[in-house]
Amino acid sequence: MNKDDINNINDKLKYSSPQEVLSWAVSEIGCDNIAFATSLGAEDQVLTHILRSMKADVSIFTIDTGCLYAESHDLIQETESLYDFKYEILTPESYAVEEMINTHGKDLFYKSLELRKLCCRLRKIEPLKNKLSSLDAWICGLRRDQSITRTNIEKVQWDEVFGIIKVNPLVDWDEKKVWDYVKKYKVPYHKLHDRGYPSIGCEPCTRAIKPGEDVRAGRWWWENKEQKECGLHQKMDTSS
Ligand code: SF4
To answer: In the chain, at which end, N or C, are there fewer CB atoms within 10 A of the end residue's CB?
Structure first.
């Protein structure tokens, strides 16, 4: 698929609902060649509900970095039980994580941007890279207004980091639309959302935000806004 093909698809899907975008992706790419990566945020819970309602046989996977909140594990169980499926749980290579901790310490992510990216690479990007190497496309719950690093994303795009297609069905939804959907369909959601955490990742790298702060201000809060991605959704040097 070249750049013109992707532009044409985005023109065709411009006014399409998330359900229609997912139906297009499943029929054009095929259930076996596409998977949904969830980080268990409200957007991803909406997409999980839509995919399970469509009865699409698409793998739904998440990464257990080893640093998740207990509430994240609770949500995994609750969602599996409600929607009658099993997540595919990806985990990092334990020897690589052990070596990293032995060399740089348990709290290395606070010491420098390079060490934080090293931790994200070993715990998240490598397991994801491994999974995506068997696929033609992946589905994500990204929205354009989540952060300044996401303003240019499209419903369908070429993922330059992983070299496959990336499908973002909720790209033009705002936060209110997500929560209206969650309430309307009683979608289970992360308990920390009610405690001031709009965006939830690993426990040591996430905090609650203050009123008026950017929704991603609680992620890697000690870093500049421009640096606030773990590499899953950003072109970056994954070799560092
Ligand atoms: Fe490591 Fe923090 Fe990245 Fe999680 S978010 S992988 S703990 S640096």
So the answer is: C
